[in-house]
C-alpha cells in the first residue's frame, strides 16, 4: 500500500449537521501530527513541480497573505530564526514576496483567504496542495456561494448560514469543523474539475477515510477571513471498528 497516512484521527468522525462549527482555542489552530514528514515532502514536491496548480494570490490580497504568514510563524515557530528549521530538518527561507508559497512549506495546513467584496466573501488567495475533489483555478476570485455550487447539500439556506458565519467570525475567536469522506485512492493531491462528478466508492469496500479539519478565523488587521484545512488520511483497517460505520459523508 502506498500513501501518506496518519495513525489516527484526533476526533471521532461521527455525523453532525452542517456546518457543525465549534469554538477553537487560538493556540490549537495549527496541528503537527505523525504524518508531518511525509506530508511536507509532498507539499515541497507540489510547490516545486506544480506551483501554478496549488498557489494563487490576487495582488489586492498581498497584505492579508503577509499578515497570515506572520500569524502562522508566531504560533508554529515562535522562536525560529531565518531560515526556519522544520522538524524534518529542512530549512525554509521566509519570502514575504511569496507569502502563500512560503506558508505551504511551513505547516501541513492548506490556507484559503476570503475577503469581503460587496455582500459576499471572495477567494482572493490560497495555497492548496491537498484539494479533495476541487481545483483552485476554478474557485480563485469567485464568491463563497459559487465556490460551493457543486456541493449537493449547499442550498440557499445553507449559503446564508455560511455567509453569516463568515461575517460573524471575530479576531482571536476561531472556529472549526470537520468532514469525513471515503476514497478509493489515498493520494493527498486530488483535484477534480466541477464538470466531473466524483464517483463515491461503495461504503463497504472503500479503502481510505479522508477527513479535513477545517478552521475559520479572522485576521485582526486586514480583516480577511482564513479558511485552513488540515488533511488526514487513514486506511480503513486502521480505524476503530465502531467508527467505520458511523463516519460522516459531508
Task: Explain what you see.
This protein is an alpha+beta fold and 250 residues long. The chain has 8 helices and 10 strands. It has one domain (22-244). It has helices spanning 36-49, 51-54, 62-76, 99-103, 136-139, 144-147, 156-168, 241-244; strands at residues 22-23, 55-57, 84-85, 91-92, 110-117, 120-127, 175-178, 181-183, 208-218, 225-235. Strands 1, 2, 5, 6, 7, 8, 9 and 10 form an 8-stranded antiparallel sheet that branches. The chain has a two-stranded antiparallel ribbon with strand order 3-4. Strand 5 and strand 6 form a beta hairpin. The longest helix has 15 residues, at 62-76. It starts with 21 loop residues before the first strand and ends in a 6-residue tail after the last helix.
End-to-end CA span = 26 Å
Order of helices and strands: EHHEHEEHEEHHHEEEEH
The class by helix and strand makeup works out as alpha+beta
Shape: globular
Mean pLDDT reading: 89
Keywords summarizing the entry:
250 residues, alpha+beta, eight-stranded antiparallel β-sheet, 25% helix, globular
In short:
The chain is an alpha+beta fold and 250 residues long. Helix content is 25%, strand content 22%. The protein has one domain.
Topology (elements, then pairings):
Blueprint: E1 22-23, H1 36-49, H2 51-54, E2 55-57, H3 62-76, E3 84-85, E4 91-92, H4 99-103, E5 110-117, E6 120-127, H5 136-139, H6 144-147, H7 156-168, E7 175-178, E8 181-183, E9 208-218, E10 225-235, H8 241-244
Antiparallel strand pairs: 1-7, 2-6, 3-4, 5-6, 5-10, 7-9, 8-9, 9-10
